[in-house]
Design a protein that fits this description.
The chain is an all-alpha fold. It contains three helices and no strands.
Protein backbone atom coordinates (compact mmCIF):
# COMPACT_ATOMS: atom_id res chain seq x y z
CA UNK A 1 0.00 0.00 0.00
CA UNK A 2 1.26 3.46 -0.87
CA UNK A 3 0.81 6.51 1.30
CA UNK A 4 -0.88 8.16 -1.64
CA UNK A 5 -3.58 5.46 -1.47
CA UNK A 6 -4.54 6.48 2.08
CA UNK A 7 -7.06 9.06 3.12
CA UNK A 8 -5.89 11.83 5.40
CA UNK A 9 -7.80 10.20 8.27
CA UNK A 10 -6.16 6.82 7.67
CA UNK A 11 -2.70 8.38 7.58
CA UNK A 12 -3.40 10.35 10.78
CA UNK A 13 -4.56 7.16 12.47
CA UNK A 14 -1.40 5.29 11.48
CA UNK A 15 0.83 8.11 12.67
CA UNK A 16 -1.11 8.43 15.94
CA UNK A 17 -0.76 4.70 16.71
CA UNK A 18 2.96 4.71 15.88
CA UNK A 19 3.67 7.72 18.09
CA UNK A 20 1.54 6.28 20.90
CA UNK A 21 3.47 2.98 20.77
CA UNK A 22 6.81 4.78 20.85
CA UNK A 23 5.71 6.92 23.80
CA UNK A 24 4.63 3.81 25.72
CA UNK A 25 8.01 2.20 25.09
CA UNK A 26 9.76 5.39 26.17
CA UNK A 27 7.68 5.51 29.36
CA UNK A 28 8.70 1.92 30.22
CA UNK A 29 12.35 2.83 29.82
CA UNK A 30 12.07 5.93 32.01
CA UNK A 31 9.95 4.50 34.83
CA UNK A 32 12.43 2.63 37.03
CA UNK A 33 9.75 0.98 39.18
CA UNK A 34 7.87 -0.29 36.15
CA UNK A 35 11.11 -1.46 34.53
CA UNK A 36 12.01 -3.34 37.75
CA UNK A 37 8.61 -5.12 37.69
CA UNK A 38 9.09 -6.09 34.05
CA UNK A 39 12.60 -7.37 34.78
CA UNK A 40 11.28 -9.35 37.75
CA UNK A 41 8.61 -10.95 35.57
CA UNK A 42 11.13 -11.82 32.87
CA UNK A 43 13.39 -13.41 35.51
CA UNK A 44 10.45 -15.48 36.79
CA UNK A 45 9.79 -16.68 33.24
CA UNK A 46 13.43 -17.62 32.70
CA UNK A 47 13.49 -19.53 36.00
CA UNK A 48 10.25 -21.35 35.25
CA UNK A 49 8.17 -19.63 37.92
CA UNK A 50 5.07 -19.28 35.79
CA UNK A 51 1.47 -20.42 35.95
CA UNK A 52 -0.15 -21.81 32.85
CA UNK A 53 -3.24 -20.14 31.46
CA UNK A 54 -5.15 -23.40 32.00
CA UNK A 55 -4.34 -23.30 35.73
CA UNK A 56 -5.38 -19.65 35.95
CA UNK A 57 -8.70 -20.41 34.25
CA UNK A 58 -9.32 -23.41 36.53
CA UNK A 59 -8.49 -21.30 39.60
CA UNK A 60 -10.83 -18.55 38.42
CA UNK A 61 -13.67 -21.02 37.91
CA UNK A 62 -13.05 -22.61 41.32
CA UNK A 63 -13.17 -19.25 43.09
CA UNK A 64 -16.27 -17.95 41.36
CA UNK A 65 -14.44 -15.63 38.99
CA UNK A 66 -11.76 -14.35 41.37
CA UNK A 67 -8.09 -15.11 40.96
Amino acid sequence: MKVSDLTVEELESIIHRAVEDELEDFYFVLDSQLRAKIDEGLKDIREGRVTSIDKLIARRKATGGKI
